[in-house]
Amino acid sequence: MTSQQVRDQFLSFFKSKGHTIVPSAPMVIKDDPTLMFTNAGMNQFKEYFLGNSKPKHPRVADTQKCLRVSGKHNDLEEVGKDTYHHTMFEMLGNWSFGDYFKKEAINWAWELLTDVYRIDKDRLYVSVFEGSDDADNLGMDKEAFALWKAIVPKDRIIMGSKKDNFWEMGDQGPCGPCSEIHVDIRPDAERRKVDGATLVNQDHPQVVEIWNLVFIQYNRKADGKLEDLPEKHIDTGMGFERLCMVLQGVHSNYDTDIFKPLIREIEIITGKPYGKDEATNIAIRVVADHIRAVAFSIADGQLPSNTGAGYVIRRILRRAIRYGFTFLDTNKPFIHRLVKVLVEQMGDAFPELRKEKQLIENVTKEEEHSFLGTLEQGLVLLDSIIKSTKGKKVAGDRAFELYDTYGFPIDLTALILQERGYDLDMEGFEAALQEQKNRSRSASEISKGDWTVLHKDVTQEFVGYDKLEAEVKIVKYRKVKSKKEGEQYQLVFNVTPFYAEGGGQVGDKGYLEAANGDVIYIVDTKRENNEIVHFAENLPKETSGTFKAVVDKKQRERTAANHTATHLLHQALREVLGDHVEQKGSAVHSKYLRFDFSHFSKLIPEQLQEVERIVNARIDAQLPLEEKRSIPMQEAMAEGAIALFGEKYGDTVRTVRFGQSIELCGGTHVKNTADIWHFKIVSESAVAAGVRRIEAITSDAVKEFYLTNNKALNEIKNLLNNTKDPVKSVVALQEENAQLKKQVETLLRDKAKNLKGDLLNEMQEVNGVNFLAKKVDLDAAGMKDLVFEMGQAKDNMFVLLGAENNGKALLTCYISKELAAERNLNAGAIVRELGKHIQGGGGGQPFFATAGGKNPAGIQEALGKAEDFIK
Ligand code: ATP
Ligand code: MG
């Protein structure tokens, strides 16, 4: 059975059981402050489990792109070393939101595995939560046990502890016991020798968990106590690659048709066979796995970068590059060449891959190129660390510096040191790493109290497209605490005019006024689990009653101007550069806007001017906002709206149109483009290979921009004696300057020529050597040129020059090569020695070396000692 068939059968099975099949949510999560990447099928349904919104369909199934490389679920270090954990994998899942419960979930799972997929029943084990006698004091999951017992022999049911059989989303929130299904794919002979039941959950590569059925029936509160949920839910997740391994009768996920073509291509590119030697195997698996994670992330709109999710992606790619570099002998970019194979193989199930192929290749190649450069640089640095190490053990903090500042992988450092016969102080490294982790963890840690609910079952409504003020009630609130923001309150209203951060646009600020005139300030607004959460420094004295909620008008207007301008910019870029321009990122603030888009070369000034001109023409055209709040996705696409990959859209969407610009957008906009006043690009730069960034300003910010520029221009005119034509004056100055420079150069050359002649004349014979030690009035480069020219003119020469430059002392020593070899002289050692007189140090080669120091008064002393070296 091909993997494609396995996937299709899963979905059609659950369709036949009344489930609606939904698409995978993006793997990179954009607007959830609590999670960077989707790490389980249930993430996109969190709001239903929490009861924040009602699901449209009570039963759904899908295959979900997951990434487990950070936070609570982090498998990165296992990947490649074992054969069944991936960074990016597909999780097949079926869900019930307050609909069916354990009975159906268990029986259907069994039916699918044994009837449809025809897995041997005697190769399957199931586990049941055994209960816990800790604070939760939970009994065993008797319900699940009874259900399993009806279909599975008792000796194949395993009792599991809280660690394996009680699933929690986080420290708080929905949770419950679970039943895992494990499969034993060992050969019969081995199975006869060792009972499979003893290998369940023991990290055996051929006795692995394939499916987890979670029975969500509790809510964990901030104080750690559990309460029963009013509605019970089912959440299941099955590893697609593991399932394919079982059904295709192979012993490793990497031997399935999902990975084989990739591995074949790696073998061809690197000339290293898979399956011969373990270190090579691991490296090949790492590369085959990681390119998937990287490609899917880029397709979802997340490029490698220096912070946040982008940094996680960069580290994954670097791990692959580094394994290739060390174990597959690749010192040129090669991973990008796998994209073609990946797209051929997965492009049908995930069209975003095909669409973004070129970008994925370019970005990956560029990253490879630059990290290989870093590795080379790191090798040089490591060399110097080794040289300066006394003894045979390299300090952990030096290795950490290499790791932290240059991204040089620690295992590579350890390997190289080992090859050179050095030890690494691994404990010191771990300590430095831990210290850094603690610093960043405590900076980002946030603790949340329980919600205090004032009004139950109230629907929440956003009215901010039309109004900046509304009468509101506080539905619920809670206290949160973080290092960064200190203590804050989160408030949810029944109605709100406040826009929550999203689609690149910042959240609204403003205030809440009680009937008695008391005011609290709203400092930010964010969306969490489909609720609009307002952040405030304190609570109103009285939380019940109604309030006037008021959005900061000025900030909102400026932000709206920037958001509309972003749409016009997007449209203008497509007109000027072509339809390949796609949005890759956007930030809409009140003070500026930033827009990242795919395009392969730097924009020339004429193009930027043309883009600016088009946008401003549309501002002048006074185009009115035409929006449709809630139309079917199909209809919006038919109208020509542009949808973004990696964005999660509902069944109905909002379209925003200004003239011919039409986009799917939830943001706030001006009523008429004339409100933008003016648009000005302030910078254009590269973000990654094939991705450009434009920063621009509008409205008040443009006024300020011109005022500041005008002021600067007036000052310049003043400096140029109130010239009428400052450009002409500056050009004249530049010409004059160039001429003066030429004159100075000629003069200096003449001076040096004279000096060279003088010095050669002053040279004396000391102990059979042409010797000179003298203070000169030159800089370091001048001295270097001079001694080399003298060396051309005379053999058998020893010259030491000293000079004072900007309060610092400089020494330059030149010894004719033959002389240095003959008398075993070393200019490097000599300047180090003489450097003591000027309180400094230096070095170089045996025939030429320099030293610098902070004590010019010692120059004469140093010159005086020079003779000693040839006596
Ligand atoms: P394991 O103990 O094997 O790491 P898990 O307990 O972390 O699994 P769950 O969180 O229950 O797994 O995820 C549900 C299913 O997803 C698992 O049964 C497994 O088949 C699959 N799965 C989990 N992690 C990975 C991974 N890193 N790569 C591939 N499949 C995975
Ligand atoms: Mg796991």
Automatic annotation (TrEMBL):
SMART domains: tRNA_SAD
Record has tRNA-binding as a keyword: yes
Record key words, sorted: Aminoacyl-tRNA synthetase, ATP-binding, Cytoplasm, Ligase, Metal-binding, Nucleotide-binding, Protein biosynthesis, RNA-binding, tRNA-binding, Zinc
GO terms for cellular component: cytoplasm
Cited InterPro entries: aa-tRNA-synth_II/BPL/LPL, Ala-tRNA-lgiase_IIc, Ala-tRNA-ligase_IIc_anticod-bd, Ala-tRNA-synth_IIc_core, Ala-tRNA-synth_IIc_N, Ala-tRNA_ligase, Ala_tRNA_ligase_euk/bac, DHHA1_dom
Cofactor note: Binds 1 zinc ion per subunit.
Essential cofactor(s): Zn(2+)
GO biological process, one term: alanyl-tRNA aminoacylation
Catalytic activity field: tRNA(Ala) + L-alanine + ATP = L-alanyl-tRNA(Ala) + AMP + diphosphate
Binding-site list for Zn(2+): 563, 567, 665, 669
Subcellular location: Cytoplasm
Gene3D superfamilies tied to this protein: 2.40.30.130, 3.10.310.40, 3.30.54.20, Bira Bifunctional Protein, Domain 2 (3.30.930.10), Threonyl-trna Synthetase, Chain A, domain 2 (3.30.980.10)
Enzyme class: ligase
Alanyl-transfer RNA synthetases family profile domain: residues covered: 1-708
EC number(s) stated in the UniProt entry for this protein: 6.1.1.7
One Gene Ontology MF term: tRNA binding
Family per record: Belongs to the class-II aminoacyl-tRNA synthetase family.
Function of the molecule: Catalyzes the attachment of alanine to tRNA(Ala) in a two-step reaction: alanine is first activated by ATP to form Ala-AMP and then transferred to the acceptor end of tRNA(Ala). Also edits incorrectly charged Ser-tRNA(Ala) and Gly-tRNA(Ala) via its editing domain.
Domain notes: Consists of three domains; the N-terminal catalytic domain, the editing domain and the C-terminal C-Ala domain. The editing domain removes incorrectly charged amino acids, while the C-Ala domain, along with tRNA(Ala), serves as a bridge to cooperatively bring together the editing and aminoacylation centers thus stimulating deacylation of misacylated tRNAs.
Protein's name according to its UniProt entry: Alanine--tRNA ligase
Organism: Flagellimonas lutaonensis
Gene name in the database record: alaS
